[in-house]
Design a protein that fits this description.
alpha/beta; about 200 residues; 12 strands; six-stranded parallel beta sheet
Length: about 200
C-alpha cells in the first residue's frame, strides 16, 4: 500500500511538472464526481462557451461507467462511444464529421510510468488512438494499479501481457505532457500536433 502511494505521488509530481492536470478518486464511488469536476474545470478553462461533444473509450474495469449521465448535464455534453473496429470507420463519412466536431477525447490507459509522468495507450480495434489525438482536450482515466515505476517496467508489462497471445499491439503511444514544440523560431507552442491540454483522473 505504501509503495503504491509512493508511485502515485511520484507520477503526480512529474505529470503536473509537464503541464498536465491531475485529479484523484480515492475509491470507485467517487470516480463519477471527480470525473465531472475534472471535465468541467478543463472545459471551462480551455474551451469557449457552448455545448460540447466527447468521443471516448474505457478500460474494461470501468466499462459500465455512464459518461452520458455524468457529463451530459455539463454544458449539454453529448458522449459518443468509440466503436469496435473504429480505425476503419473513422476514415469514413459520419466518423470523420464526429471526430472533427468533438472537443474532448476521454480514454483509458494501458499503464503509466511514475519516473517520467508518461502514460501509455495501445492501439487496438476497441481502443483507438484518434480520441487521444484530434481533440483540444484529452482526459485519461487511469487505474492506479497500472502505475509502473518506470517506462522500462511498463514495456515489460506490455511484453508479459501480450506474449501469451503471441502478438503485440500495432502501435504503442507514449504521452508525456500536452503536445508541444519549440522548433519554430525557438518559440514554445502548445497543441501543435495533438491536444493542448491533458488531464488524468487516477482512481482506485
Amino acid at each position: 500500500m505504501i509503495e503504491m502511494e509512493a508511485l502515485r505521488n511520484q507520477f503526480q509530481r512529474h505529470f503536473e511538472a509537464l503541464g498536465g492536470h491531475w485529479f484523484y478518486a480515492s475509491n470507485s464511488e467517487r470516480l463519477p464526481v471527480v470525473l465531472a469536476s475534472a471535465y468541467q474545470a478543463m472545459a471551462d478553462r480551455y474551451l469557449p462557451d457552448g455545448p460540447l461533444q466527447v468521443v471516448y473509450w474505457l478500460n474494461s474495469d470501468i466499462s459500465g461507467l455512464d459518461l452520458e449521465g455524468i457529463l451530459g448535464p455539463i454544458r449539454g455534453t453529448q458522449c459518443i462511444s468509440w466503436p469496435q473496429g473504429g480505425r476503419q470507420q473513422a476514415v469514413q463519412g459520419r466518423w470523420q464529421d464526429l471526430l472533427a466536431e468533438s472537443q474532448v477525447g476521454i480514454t483509458g490507459a494501458a499503464w503509466a510510468a511514475a519516473d517520467t509522468g508518461t502514460v501509455a495507450l495501445y492501439a487496438s480495434p476497441s481502443t483507438g488512438l484518434l480520441p487521444s489525438l484530434l481533440m483540444p482536450i484529452h482526459i485519461i482515466l487511469l487505474n492506479q494499479n497500472r502505475i509502473q515505476p518506470s517506462v522500462s517496467d511498463g514495456l515489460k508489462r506490455l511484453y508479459q501481457e501480450n506474449q501469451a497471445e503471441g502478438r503485440m499491439p500495432p502501435l504503442v503511444k507514449l504521452i508525456t505532457g500536452p503536445s508541444m514544440t519549440a522548433d519554430i523560431e525557438g518559440q514554445l507552442v502548445i497543441g501543435v500536433h495533438g491536444p493542448s491540454a491533458i488531464g488524468v483522473v487516477v482512481y482506485e
